[in-house]
């Protein structure tokens, strides 16, 4: 039976969950203890109750997240599809989007009594050593968005599992199922909205990576500069040289990289800026503030990212891109398809892109 303090914490958390989006992260246990002046055991009791009701899911070292997945559908038992064990691999510097995808998959598999093992790695050689020492799995999900994957790793994973699906498009020239976002589609969507608002000059800032999806979007932006010459102005793509992964802080890099572009009156050479491959949207806004640039009054900002990842849109940024929830669902669907029909050709699944317009975009000021 819960004590009075646990009931108060439970009521507060229940109300918070009602307001939050699916996949949103809760405050830490320590923060909740401090806010309610209660013990860790009291907070944990309230969290455990909400987890038992299927409203929360926790990942060791990552936090506790809101989940609205509901019960597993009849006829989709993992044991009926031969999916009893799943291995999820991710780079140690993964961003919140990757963590949310993992949370969904773990929750989905746990409902069906499937064993899930998650491994986060820094170096491929170390990962290969670990993989050689653990049993085989029915399926493997390899999360890879902005780093290259050695062929020897893919070869080993294909030997250890009946199904291998890559969460990302960085793999090319190999027969492996892949799930990813067409960032060129998101770019076109964002540019259309900005043009409709009256913008005629555009900038694009991205992380420093050779990942194909990012390179393709940067090239597409460059093509617009050649095609639209005279009608619109496209500044050459801006690369944050010191930022090589979405999870890295960008505050200093944004401020230092954009400062040389400022005119004498403190203006950038474009009225709209798109960010690509950057998860630290707060860092982007803080970097602009350091330069004295206020959005949307001085500059409209659009994030090319994931619509349902709170840290990317902050509840205030216009965002164009895919959904982490749909990515997770497609990963599970593709795994089952591969196990049930191993003879089918590998597929590349492009996630649907959409746009959510918020307060970071507006009509440009008259220059």
Automatic annotation (TrEMBL):
SUPFAM superfamilies: Periplasmic binding protein-like I (SSF53822), Winged helix' DNA-binding domain (SSF46785). The keyword Iron does not apply. It holds the Pfam family GntR. The keyword DNA damage does not apply. It comes from the Bacteria. Residues 2-69 form the HTH gntR-type domain. InterPro entries: LacI/GalR-like_sensor (IPR046335), Peripla_BP_I (IPR028082), Tscrpt_reg_HTH_GntR (IPR000524), WH-like_DNA-bd_sf (IPR036388), WH_DNA-bd_sf (IPR036390). Keywords: DNA-binding, Transcription, Transcription regulation. PANTHER family: HTH-TYPE TRANSCRIPTIONAL REGULATOR GALS, LACI-RELATED TRANSCRIPTIONAL REPRESSOR. This is GntR family transcriptional regulator. The lineage of its organism: Bacteria, Pseudomonadati, Pseudomonadota, Alphaproteobacteria, Hyphomicrobiales.
